[in-house]
User: Fold this.
Amino acid sequence: MAPPAPGSRAPLRWGTGALLALWATLLTVALSDAAVGAALRYELAISVAAGGEISGEVTVHGTAPADWPEAVFRLYPAAHGAACLTVTGAWVERTEVAWESIEPTTVAVSLAANAGDPFSLTLRFAGRIPELASTGGYGTYARSDHAVILSQAYPILAPWDGSWIAYPVLPWGDAIVADVAAYVVDLTVPAGWIPVASGTETEVSPGRYLIEGENLRELGLVLVHGYEMQTASAGPVEVRSFFRPAHANAGRAALDITVEAIDVFARHLGPPSFLHLDVVSVPLRAAAGVEYPGLILAEEGYYSRYPSDPLLFPMIFAHEVAHQWWYAEVGSDQVAEPWVDEALATYTSGLYFQAHDRFAEILRYWETSYAQGRARNKDARIASPVWDFPGGDGYGGIVYSGGALFFQAVRERMGNDAFFHALRRYRGEFRWRIASGADLLAILAQESPCPLADLVAAWLGP
Ligand SMILES: [Zn+2]
Assistant:
């Protein structure tokens, strides 16, 4: 995610201390470096009606990595109210099985499995997509007259690493922690609407689409109405920019920035692992952009103001493109260690500005933003978990901008060759997995020609 310009605040909906204490007794929190991984496969049927009703069925195929008494699924949209998305039934091999809602976003399904057992579990779900004006959060599960944003609009199996990785959904930051999976989706949409999704979309009959993708950390999905599209290529990647007709110039600029960012990042980090990337202008709240595998959503207010934000406008796309490497491909625990992908995505976005001889400008921006963040939240540090930023206070400035400054200090210490070699090695070792901050720091330290411990302590220490 890209936070909005400094000054806007995400609303606080609840205190986190009591909730976290409750959860600690329900689910042991763990970082993951091993995952169910690419063996997972989601077969999804989703139907969206014109009035905002959503229903569907998901069958998840995989191999149990351990002895399971149950499987834990997340329904992230239920953070905005259980009516938004709820499970209505569960089956294992066509036999109905018991399930229990631990809280609205977390469902435990009886699925006794031994390590190495293949499993196939089906959940039915239904709900209602709220209107943007009446929903909380960033508006990423919401509908307006021209966009229906369907983030995490289906049950998602929580990652396992000795225990289920599952956290309460907080109103700020990214909530999802998920393993990559193959997806096959049968999607039904209201007449006149077009889906833009992770993977590829094929219209099989009017209003009905087949969506397919491999190694997707989640299925990003938005329906649009009355949009225009422009396309361009970045090496092997087909980039599509979707925008409303009034925003044609901004839509073209978004396309050009995205293509150039892919080219610049590929030169430093290695070639992209994706062949399709869609960029869609949508109404969001308190977020400038949001990343999904193969899909970027950008707040349409930046399009209507274009070209009046010469720094923030390109920053959105450069940041979200960087998440294709750091999130979509190399996963991390976005709740316990948001700096691992956000600071790295922010730093990587700086390479786009460096290619435009604007690196000094982006460094100044990060320095100002970090200072503002620290002034707003004196307790949190770059490596703090999301719950250490109540109300989102200081989150972008500290985690994103401060974290980017940490990587700049590391790069200056290591030198360009060793620094980028370390990032490419990190990418190669943790591709399609969930890495930890310790994994990233260990590789940087191993590849560095001189010690980094003092920098790590000074920037990330308690
Ligand atoms: Zn981000």
